[in-house]
Amino acid sequence: MSTINVLGLVLLVLMILVGGKAGAQSFLALLLNFGLLFLAIVLVAFQFPPLIVTLVVGLLVLALTIFMSSGDDLSSTVAFIASAVVLVVLVLLIVPVEHWALVQGFGPEDSEDLEGLSVLVGVNFVQVTTATAILSTLGAIAEAAMAIAAGLSEILEQHPQVTLKSLLGDGIAVGKQIIGTTFNTLFFGFFGGFLALFIWFTGVHYSVGEILNDKIFVSEILMILFAMVSVILTVPITTWVMTRAVAGQRKRTAKQSSADK
Amino acid sequence: MQFLKTNRGRALAWLVTLLIGGLLVFGTQHDAALYRDPIMHVTQVTTGPSSKETDDFHNADTQTKQTLHGKILNGQYRGQSLTVTNTYSRSGAMDQRYRVGSQLFVVVHNHQGNHLTATAKDLKRDTPLIFMIWLVVGLLLLIMQFSGFMAFLSVAANGVLFLLAILLNGSTQGAQVLWIFGSLAVVFAALTLWLVLGANRQMLITLATTLGGTTIAILVALIVFHFTHEKGMFYESMQYVTQLPRPLFLAETLLGSLGAVMDESTDIISSLFALKRERPELSAMQVFKSGRQIGSTIMGPLINVLFFIFVADTFPMAMLYLKNGNSWGYTFSMNMSMGVVQSLISGIGIVLAVPLASFLASRFMEKKVRA
């Protein structure tokens, strides 16, 4: 058996032991997400427009991740709507910045890996890199939106009559707790991945100026920054969607109770 | 510090950040003098004819030649006019199209007489980089206020430590990479948790969980590696490797999973402390059970976060492989297998941290948590 299969099996067993049915479901969501990511790459290779593929796959990934984790209906729905809004806002930010910074494709550091490969493949790499940046933030958006929605729905459970205004404040308070730790996840996650690149920079003695303008370096740092922006934006947007949902619910129950009379 | 917590203080801090950031972004447009390499400012572009290219795999692309006229902004050739040519393709994987107003690095070849010849090297990219940093800091302060500042501080402190460790690694020729980054992980975790939680019992329990979860995950991975003989792992597919790949891979995985495990243990343990504060009568077993329940809802999304970070990054190269007529299996092996292994190891760490956090919290929490 290959290492990936055995590690996957270990993970599956552990997830079931710790989380029971929810654990098995999360593992399945992970598998499906991998399938979706691979599908996105294959579709773009077949000349489908990268941005549209990314948006569709992105929405599917968010839906899968959010609805397949155990959470109540209200918080899952709110988390999904909020993360979809964040995704759209993020696309509006990433597309112009990627066109401005022109960090698409590969840099001189990649030349060894590119040996023997044709790079004139007729796919717009600005869009591919944009798609990469969007995809790499999906997990963080889903996680942050779920955490905030869950925190708010717990507050609603304990104080069902909380005013919408104080709910807004609560959302930011929950967000404050989450953002510090989520930033660490992002920081270590990305820096773990770039360790080799940074070692390369110091080994080959790049100057600070060269590093700050290097295609690969800027591209990677931009990815972290996009992910951070998306997590920050998730806080107010999720809170706002939650207040809208609660306001709608209250209106409906108010109507029903007046109709009952 | 107290001043920052008042409304006026906050508004002022935000305005100052906005202003300094704006000045920095503006400054990077005019910082050519700080660079040693000559920078050219493009004032006029003429686009030449395009040619169609088809490679062995029937991928069609177009290449276009452009002639850029402009002025050098810095160094010994400052102020001199210059004309360079550049070829860009429609796909733009290794090249780019310059426009009027672009600033680019050039290599000057020949300066006999008063006519300069040069070739375009690369675009100057510091302005978008600084702009995005400014945007993140501004948003953080606007929405998160003081705690946003702390979050940023902890990221910045970790960034400095990371840089020092890389320099140390460089000075030992990478022989000690696993030790350097292993001990760095301990310092990272301690520093970050101290900034987030302060020095107290909760922080110690969280730290123990973080380090324990990450270490056990790496040990599990090593055992699996041993019995499967690392079948299906392609160290040669790792990018930018300049030293022995195996310890480097483990160091990358260690760092990558550390943040997520720390995130999760902080969440579980602080919820358990809050729970115990509200209902001090709960037994250790009950605390353990609620810890497991909280943990099992957050572990899935967290594994997902790392998975997307580790694997999405391989998108451009994987696509290039597919376009070059490689099979799906080969493309996966050569580009994504290492990222998937990393995600799985981190996943194991994240899952193991759930019982570990619940156990340590239930066992070592003070009998009565002070409110």
From TrEMBL, chain A:
Q: Which residues form a coiled coil?
A: none
Which key words tag this protein in UniProt? Answer: Membrane, Transmembrane, Transmembrane helix
InterPro entries per the UniProt record, alphabetical: UCP031503_TM (IPR014564), YibE_F (IPR012507)
Family matches, as Pfam families: YibE_F
| Ranges that cross the membrane | 34-67, 79-97, 117-142, 183-201, 221-242
Q: Quick check: keyword Membrane in the entry?
A: yes
Q: Which domain of life does the UniProt lineage start with?
A: Bacteria
PANTHER family, sorted: MEMBRANE PROTEIN, MEMBRANE PROTEIN-RELATED
Its name, as the record gives it, is YibE/F family protein
From TrEMBL, chain B:
Q: Report keywords, A-Z.
A: Membrane, Transmembrane, Transmembrane helix
Q: Which residues cross the membrane?
A: 12-30, 127-144, 151-171, 177-197, 204-228, 296-320, 340-361
Q: Does the keyword Transferase apply?
A: no
UniProt superkingdom: Bacteria
This chain's protein is named YibE/F family protein
